[in-house]
Amino acid sequence: MPRNFGGARHERVTDQTPLPEPNAPAQPPPPGAPTATAKAAAGAIDATKIYGRGENEVRALDGVSVTFEHTKYTAIMGPSGSGKSTLMHCLAGLDSLTSGAVFIGDTYLAKLNDKQLTELRRTAVGFIFQAYNLVPTLTAEENIRLPLMLGGTDGDRAWFDEVVGTVGLTDRLKHRPSELSGGQQQRVAVARALNARPDIVFADEPTGNLDSRSGAEVLDFMRRAVREYGQTIVMVTHDPVAAAYADRVVFLNDGRIVDEMLDPTADTVLDRLKRFD
C-alpha cells in the first residue's frame, strides 16, 4: 500500500508510465536496470535535468532510466560533472527534474505537493552528507533523534540503542559535534539516517572528509546495515575503495548511464574509471 503523506490520500499513478517491473523484462535490460527480481526501492524513468538555456544549456541528466533494489547497497560513480550528484538529489526529492519521473517505492515524487514531499523525506528517506550536517547546539543523541522529534515521536528505544551501539557512540551521546572527531560526527550522521528506519538512505560522498581508517569504519557499518538490517542504500562516491563496499556500481558519464558492475572490487572499479580518461 502506498504511504499517506501530509494527511491527504496519496494518489497512485495509474494513467502514466507504470513503475518498472524488474522481474519480467520484455527485452534485455539497458545499463542501470536491475539484474535481480526484486521490487525497486527507488528509481528514475527517462529523467532529464537541464540547467540554463540556449548556448548556456547544460544537460546534467540526459534520459536516465535506472532502478535501485530493496536491501541492496548501490554506488553511483562517474567523472566530475557526470550527473551523479544531480541524479541522487532528484531521486531524494532535493531537486526536481526538467522532464521524466522519479519514484520512491510506489510514490511518484512529482505527484506530491511541498508538504507531502517534506513528509516523505522525513519519514521514508535518510540522508548522509559529506559535511555531516549536524546541528552544532544539539548533543549527538539529540542530533540522532532529530528527524523523529520533528515528527512528534520518540521512536523505538531498543532500535536506537542497537544503532548507537553498533556505530560505537554509546559513550559520546552527550557530546556536541565540536567535541567529536570527524569520524565520530559522520557516525552520528549515519545513526541519524538509520534511526528512523527509512525505506532508503541516500549518501553523498559520506567519507569525503574522513581519513582512511574513519572512512572504512563508516563504510563497514553502512554495509552491515544493508546485510544485517535490510537497509537500502544509494551512495554517490568518487572513491573506488568506497564503491567496493557496495553490491553494485552504476557508472554515469555526460548525464547518461553507461555501465554497471556487480560485486565490485576496488581494482575493477578503478580499471573502469580509467576508461573515462
> What would the CATH topology of one domain be?
Rossmann fold
Apparent shape:
globular
- How does CATH name the architecture of one domain? 3-Layer(aba) Sandwich
Unreliable stretches, pLDDT < 50, 5 or more residues? 1-37
Fraction of residues in helix: 25-40%
Please report the distance between the alpha carbons of the first and last residues: 45 Å
For the record, what CATH class of one domain applies? Alpha Beta
> What composes the largest sheet?
6 strands, mixed
In terms of quaternary structure, the protein is: single chain
Beta-strand content bin: 15-25%
Strand adjacency order, main sheet: 6-7-8-3-9-10
Provide the residue-averaged pLDDT. 85
Annotation, overall tally of beta strands: 10
CATH homology superfamily name of one domain? P-loop containing nucleotide triphosphate hydrolases
Number of helices: 8
3D architecture notes:
This protein has 277 residues and is an alpha/beta fold. The protein has a domain at 69-93 and 113-274: P-loop containing nucleotide triphosphate hydrolases (Rossmann fold, 3-Layer(aba) Sandwich), CATH 3.40.50.300. Helix content is 30%, strand content 23%. It contains eight helices and ten strands. It has helices at 84-91, 114-123, 140-150, 157-166, 182-195, 212-229, 240-243, 266-274, and strands at 40-51, 58-69, 73-77, 99-104, 107-108, 125-129, 200-204, 233-236, 248-253, 256-262. The strands form two sheets. Strands 6-7-8-3-9-10 form a six-stranded mixed β-sheet, with helices on both faces. Strands 2-1-4-5 form a four-stranded antiparallel β-sheet, with helices on one face. α4 runs antiparallel to α5 (182-195) and α5 (182-195) packs parallel to α6 (212-229). The protein is globular and about 50 Å long. The model is unreliable at 1-37 (pLDDT under 50).
